[in-house]
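testing teh design pipeline on a random one, pls ignore if ur not involved
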């Protein structure tokens, strides 16, 4: 084939790699737009930064602002079929008003009045509840009623039927964590309605799942197949609390049992695999002893924390907040996170780390700098 144009000398680009905007180039760019095309050289800075730069921003929500609004919703908004849940989601200020705490994680406060039901449904989204105060609600997962009390962590795998029932004469609030944003972006979601009422004629303190699985290190021989989500539906506060107290006690006795000085931590795991409780969600509990400061750490993937007890200072990137019981805050991908506490701090954490680990995209970095000032 004979070339119809003679070879051109491409003009030099500027410091950001952009060619000089000649009239011909402007016409080409308009053509790209009309044909729905985008050249890499104008987009590469945002698409391929040197390290993760999240649209999500560090943000803190105070429990003392959230809880009264949930109570008001309890007065004004019924729970029933269609709306499904009286759950109010944290909307990250960097994510355009969507009800997403981070690009992958949903975090909400849910509220049930005395004797109220949240009807049964199921969805592919993985979920859990964590209780910072109160009791009296049973969450019924595939027909197994699970009591919810302060400090309990209650995972609930995708596609399991579930509804909630407040059997007490006091309202109860708790937090929900789900992978709603991740499944939304990736078009992976399915949903089905179940029964309108939640059967809690039987409402034991211990669920059937705990009777089968909550015996440390003991696997029922009837259940030797690994399952992708944990079969244990409640991780009770007494166990979490004791595990953390013992880590700190061992450290004080001269055995190094903490992740760093004064910082005890546990991960909730699936007893059939030892891995994370749910395929897309990691959950942990961290306890900082009084007068502890942690080193700044960055990680690929995002986290949501809820303060369970105590007070302290949290630094996430350029943000710094004082936090107290019930407060929630988000840590976007690769933003350095550090804590300092004078009186001690108990923190519940959930993250999307299993997604990144499975895809071999996980990285972390501990800042070589001094620990934060206590
Ligand atoms: O309790 O089943 O916060 O399906 C969001 C979606 C809670 C729940 C949420 C849900 C639920
Ligand atoms: Fe649900």
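output:
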């Amino acid at each position: 084939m004979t070339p119809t144009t003679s070879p051109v000398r491409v003009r030099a680009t500027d410091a950001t790699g952009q060619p000089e905007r000649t009239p011909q180039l402007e016409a080409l760019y308009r053509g790209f737009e009309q044909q729905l095309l985008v050249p890499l050289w104008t987009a590469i800075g945002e698409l391929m930064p040197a390290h993760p730069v999240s649209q999500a921003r560090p943000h803190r929500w105070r429990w003392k602002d959230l809880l009264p609004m949930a109570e008001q919703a309890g007065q004004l908004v019924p729970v029933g079929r269609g709306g499904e849940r009286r759950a109010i989601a944290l909307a990250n200020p960097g994510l355009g008003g969507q009800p997403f705490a981070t690009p992958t994680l949903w975090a909400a406060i849910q509220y049930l009045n005395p004797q109220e039901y949240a009807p049964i449904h199921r969805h592919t989204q993985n979920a859990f509840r964590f209780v910072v105060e109160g009791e009296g609600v049973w969450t019924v997962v595939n027909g197994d009623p699970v009591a919810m009390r302060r400090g309990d962590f209650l995972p609930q795998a995708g596609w399991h039927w579930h509804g909630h029932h407040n059997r007490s004469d006091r309202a109860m609030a708790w937090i929900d964590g789900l992978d709603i944003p991740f499944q939304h972006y990736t078009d992976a979601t399915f949903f089905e309605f179940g029964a309108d009422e939640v059967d809690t004629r039987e409402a034991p303190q211990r669920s059937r799942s705990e009777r089968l699985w909550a015996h440390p290190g003991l696997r029922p021989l009837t259940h030797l197949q690994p399952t992708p989500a944990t079969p244990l539906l409640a991780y009770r506060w007494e166990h979490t609390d004791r595990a953390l107290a013992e880590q700190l006690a061992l450290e004080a006795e001269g055995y190094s049992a903490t992740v760093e000085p004064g910082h005890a931590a546990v991960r909730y795991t699936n007893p059939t695999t030892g891995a994370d409780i749910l395929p897309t969600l990691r959950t942990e509990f961290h306890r900082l002893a009084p007068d502890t400061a942690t080193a700044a750490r960055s990680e690929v993937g995002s986290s949501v924390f809820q303060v369970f007890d105590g007070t302290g200072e949290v630094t996430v990137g350029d943000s710094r907040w004082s936090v107290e019981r019930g407060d929630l805050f988000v840590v976007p991908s690769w933003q350095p996170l550090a804590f300092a506490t004078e009186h001690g701090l108990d923190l519940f954490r959930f993250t999307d780390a299993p997604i990144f680990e499975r895809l071999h995209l996980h990285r972390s970095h501990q800042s070589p700098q001094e620990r934060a000032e206590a």
